[in-house]
Hints:
alpha+beta; 2 domains; 9 helices; Alpha-1-antitrypsin, domain 1; six-stranded mixed β-sheet; 401 residues
Amino acid sequence: MATRILILLVAMAAVQSYPQYFDDLVFPQYTRTALGDSVDVASMKLLKETYKSATEKNVVTSPLGIQTLLALYASGAEGKNREEIVKSLGASEYGLLKNNYIDMSDRFSSMDRKFLTLCNKVLVSDKYSLQDQFLKTARSFHSEVDNINFEDTKAAADAINEWASRNTDGKISNPVSESDIDPASAVALLNVIYFQGHWHVPFNASETKDKEFHVDKSTTVVKPMMHLEQSLHYRDSPELGAWLVELPYKESKFRMIIVLPKDVDGLQAVVEKAAENGLLQDVFQMYPAGAEVILDLPKFEIRSKLNLNELLPKVGVSRIFEESAAGIIKEQGVAVSRGLQEAFIKVDEEGATAGAFTGLVAVPMSSNSRPPPPIHFKADHPFLFAILHDDVVLFTGTYSH
């Protein structure tokens, strides 16, 4: 059996939302795919375990960043090691999985970096060289490839942190410390996803007021709550026991979904139900409400650091930490020694002023009819959120207080 050399798996993700105003909005036609479904279910399973293990119930993660690195790692694994990754990512076989992630890397890497940055990097020790096939796969994932001296642990950590900071506009600047770097490391696989979305729906900063937020049935705090009255995509889901509303971004096919449990203490149950079947079944049943949605949503900012050594085994991926993968470097097998993710999200109406926004939805009415009563969507207790592009979950998390 090959001597086990170590590998570092690091994913970083950041998202910010900014105001933007337009005269009108045409709802895009979203497409549901097998890849979107597999990403959805895998993402919600990871969110469930993240939520359960977190002492701080405000959490955010980009499962897609982790999934991308696992798909890349699987190209150098074999046997049950690879099969475990493929199964966890909801694919039937690795060839299909790899092609799906190559296509997705092509799509996201070609987008304007002013709003979306998705990039991968492979750092290989200057003592080793990558297997030709793994290098080819890494390139097809739009990965940068560089050599590094892991024995200089401070310099290695500094190089990773500089790359993360540069690709997230400084929002994630120190995802790894010197202690995270094992001098015996052979390879580090890195991923960054950074989204800067501009609201297509205007929040007026002057309407943000301090209002009560119910942490649970017995605890109430005061939070700055943004306010909006518009006709939005909406769903009342008996399956999830929650209401859903969609906040579209200016950037085509990007949207935030807020999933508000009907019960003040219902977030854990909603997270568990989402982990069983994903969110897309409900998301693709959302339709224009046909009435104004009166939305109250707290401003929030969340930063999470996830230990993937603890989380991944809970979603069925453990062999990468235990078994040697022979197809990554030429000299000998490697196993993952350390996996981590730092994620950040900021949602507010920063700098927003009242602006023109007309006709999200036109509701046919006769001269004698009255407008339908408004729908109140008051996110005044813990909820789940997700940011999607088309049917692919980019970020997800929970806000609890």
